[in-house]
Amino acid sequence: MNNNEIRKQFPVLDQQVYGKPLVYLDNAATTQKPLCVIDRERDYYLLENCNIHRGVHYLSQKATEAYEHARQTVADFIHAKESREIVFTRGTTESLNLLATSFEHLFFSTSNSQLSTFNSQLKVLVTAMEHHSNLVPWQQMVQRQHGQLLVVPMDDKGVLVLEQYEKLLKEGPKMVSIAHISNVLGTINPIKQMITMAHNYGIPVVVDGAQSMAHHPIDVQDLDCDFFVFSGHKMYAPMGIGGLYGKAEWLEKLPPYQFGGEMVDTVSFEKTTFNVLPFKFEAGTPNVGAALGLETAIQFLQSLDRKEVEAHENQLLQSAIQQLSEIDGIRFIGQAKQRSGLVSFVIEGVHPYDLGTIIDKMGVAVRTGHHCAEPVMTRFGIPGTVRASFALYNTLEEVEVFVKAVKRAATMLR
Questions:
Q1: What is the pLDDT of residues 117-131, one digit of tens each?
Q2: How many CA atoms lie within 13 A of 270 on its CB side?
Q3: Catalytic residue at 372?
Q4: Which CATH architecture has domain 40-302?
Q5: Exposed (0-12), middle (13-18) or buried (19+): which is 284, by Cβ within 10 Å?
Q6: Topology of the domain covering 3-30+305-413
Q7: Which listed residue (36, 50, 225, 372) is catalytic?
Q8: DSSP structure class, residue 90
């Protein structure tokens, strides 16, 4: 992998902040966008801009064809059976809210024949390491229905306790929703095994793939997950675009999440019927330019050797851990054997926010705080962490700059 050539696609990295070369290590929050993605979105607005579907004129037809081609590209990228199993959303958060809301409407509609199987003892199973996006929607759903949120615990290394997971499955949750990779700990969960275990009890599974799409190949058919959600902005695509994969048989059952144009079939004052998949979940004018940017980001990733990228990011991670380990009083939060390219830590006597603020003045961008995962902080008894997260354009030299900045800042703050 030619890192120098790749970095040329990201001019944002070639700048100085506070008189220092920028070292961008906040990729778990959002990745930078390559020129090819920026150009594709720009070209759409320059040459193709039009509302899609139903228009008979040239621009509408051209934009519609491009949009649906992008949907097929996403389907192929994650190995979905067919493109109608891909719903474009604003990202992981909207996808999870869609699922929680639609499932609640499905199970608790008074006109639903399945109502008798879903009573006030509704249970949803999540894990102790979830991002708020994969916790709060399910929490609010079960609270509205006087149900129960079940939580799979994790050990001191940030690894889920599968024996407890098995016990909780026996309690009869109606849904399991789990992160593929923790955005705080970097833990790569054994989701294929967990999906199989849940299916043995007839329980559908949602996988939060926000942190995995950019770093690891995804095959939803091999995983056999019922749903998989992701955000484009964490995989080199524009903000405001992402997706929901769902098995067609599940998406057919679920009622729409939002209502308006495009998602309808026929409308009268007495009755409305809804469009076919995937359009019944895509109310209103979509973010066409961003969808085309997402397709281009996927093509950018496909142009690279994914195994080589994984190896490079792992090398960055291991180098960071090795060098940071030399700091007295450092405590790594998350030490799973199977982990992705991020490291979270605290240093004794130093507040994470103060540390992050000082190393920012040295040109190093990291994330501090609870990372939208407050229960994880509670589990480890800390207010927050410093998190450095790596991407394919980062270098070993940047890791050295980062570690030197941390050491200097820690010395200043003690």
A1: 455 579 999 999 999
A2: 0
A3: yes
A4: 3-Layer(aba) Sandwich (3.40)
A5: exposed
A6: Aspartate Aminotransferase, domain 1 (3.90.1150)
A7: 372
A8: S
